[in-house]
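Interim report, section 4.2 (structural modelling).
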Amino acid sequence: MKISIGIIDDHQLFLKSLVLMLHTFKKYEVVVQATNGQDLQNKMKADTSIPEIMLIDVNMPVMDGVATASWLNQHYPAMKLVALSMNDTDKTIIEMIKAGCCAYLLKDTHPNDLEKALNEIQLKGYYNADVSNINFRRLLNYEQDLIKLNEKEKTFLQLACSDLTYKQIAALMFLSERTIDGYRESLFQKLNVQSRVGMALEAIRKGFVKL
Amino acid sequence: MKISIGIIDDHQLFLKSLVLMLHTFKKYEVVVQATNGQDLQNKMKADTSIPEIMLIDVNMPVMDGVATASWLNQHYPAMKLVALSMNDTDKTIIEMIKAGCCAYLLKDTHPNDLEKALNEIQLKGYYNADVSNINFRRLLNYEQDLIKLNEKEKTFLQLACSDLTYKQIAALMFLSERTIDGYRESLFQKLNVQSRVGMALEAIRKGFVKL
DNA sequence: TACCAACAGGGGAAATTTCCCGTATGAAAA
DNA sequence: TTTTCATACGGGAAATTTCCCCTGTTGGTA
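Predicted structure of the assembly:
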């Protein structure tokens, strides 16, 4: 009896290629393919075949990796979720783990390592990726230097990443310039920067603000 | 006689999977695989098998897609170069074409389309990707709104994307604050922004400065 | 030779950002 | 009930950014 696998990735070429690759691993069989979380939900409804292991790409349109992993974790708690990503700098690593993934693999891992990882997941229920691949120190330190922002701060940060002056931002948020000043100071401290430019850049790096 | 193909992609999993996929296309055969331009150069030196078509990933460490395509175009002018990328918003599309690529494919194209594209490239020497896949308007307008920066401006822009003050930047560039002021004004105009924050953000969006 | 375009720089001023100081209010905790 | 804490706000000032106007040099080029 082969072990059933599901794959979710928005890149058709990668998705289909990976399916081919998994078929060369004699023990495994791909039973579900989807290009995003939404797509998967539809296919899981229609099709009754529930894979034992699900490979999930982190970056996807429509319904991303974290949301998909959370959903799967809730509806199919027994399913082993594996996150697939391009770059380990991504702050979503920890979020994928929190969302219920038992393994994290980079797309530049060797096929042999993928097979090994799958075996280990099947056997032990989890897989610790190669230390050389993922920056574990960052991962472990992540929680403690995880910066928490409240809604107002997030709104302010979003608006600060633009050509707007603080006065304009204050007007948009229906707050006094002084109050905005307080948020700025708080963000400077949390992000460890000395200027608005630094703040904007750091906001993007940390993923608080997109593009 | 099969048509020989080369593939360059830093993601092992994708690379190897793609090789498998190409082997399912009966007419094609992968003769060279590399994880970046540098790697390819070494392999091309050692190995005498020169592929007719080369698939090149745009985003790679060490030696990126554009540099690799240029090098191949110079040293193997007869080789048909195909750019592979994740996102069509990338400004490197036009650069890949300029570097000598005769086709541009997104990684979320369907395998069937890849095969069609390869056939067409083999036949006609080039391939026009599906209009629905690539934003051609952007591509066509690209040249005219391509922003040209001289070296000093690039250096300044890079330094401006930080916590540094203009005074500090001036010192680092061995220029007067007034001169820096001129560069700032020039960049504001070219990037169509009103503030340093906007400039930094736009610099990142346009790819002049890496995150 | 005179003109033009580019680059480098100076003085000054208004707008904005950054950083002090301190106050008030309401909710939660001691 | 007093204390603590988070949030909202104000005045003022220094630093920085932004925007004017104007000078000089250099290297083509008409």
